């Protein structure tokens, strides 16, 4: 086993933990090859693995975030123009909170501060779709090639989506309270390393409390799919025999609400049962980017026409990405 395979399987994937749990359950008399024992092993392993990765990633990313408060982020974005502004905005979205609902207040703040609308939408699209956490988690499940291409294509969707919205001059479809809110450009105080570490710890604990219920639900659904749903059912609905699987997965994902940590175990179980890679990734993108609660929140800040454009741009981009991954799945995995 090469160094990278070891990192992917044993460090990020924690296969040693899965084996350890399996031995423990077997010692207790459970048959881990059966449906009940297999479900319990899947549930314990995935909850522990995702929880560890969640806490480590949020702590690290929150520490990085402490150097990019809204005021500093606004100034950074204000230095760039045209498509470069969209690219920087999309990249900035990768070090922001994990769910779309927590990105919307920042989007409103950037918009009220006078940043171009397309730039703020590039941020809004990329923030939940392609953060650093998703990169690490995707590597642990699907491998480095899939994870890196997923993130790159997500950034492309964010840049193109923001550019389209910018070119269509949709400013009049922003609610008036956002445009009139203004912005107080306050210099952020310089934090000591200890203060940044405290901030990162607080962010980690706060996010964990919010996200953990979704992890439990997501892993529970994953365990159900992995051990109880017949493979033929999943292949019929989401496999290569259904040309509309990507579209179906995208539509099904939109009403749901979870973040990358809650959708990973579901995606992992679907893939093991014969669902196509692109179909699974489209489901993940739809859940994290176009969740119903986040759309309801966004509607408070934008008018229906702009909201519909945002949904349409994201959905079309997600569907295209899904079909691309399906076409090249045999190369990537």
Automatic annotation (TrEMBL):
Compartmental location: Cell membrane
Membrane-spanning intervals of the chain: 12-30, 42-64, 76-99, 106-125, 137-165, 211-229, 244-265, 277-296, 308-332
Domain of life: Bacteria
InterPro entries per record: DUF318, UPF0718_permease
Repressor as UniProt keyword: no
Keywords for this protein: Cell membrane, Membrane, Transmembrane, Transmembrane helix
Membrane topology, record value: Multi-pass membrane protein
One term under GO cellular component: plasma membrane
Keyword NAD: no
UniProt family annotation: Belongs to the UPF0718 family.
Protein name: Permease
Taxonomy of the source species: Bacteria, Bacillati, Bacillota, Clostridia, Eubacteriales
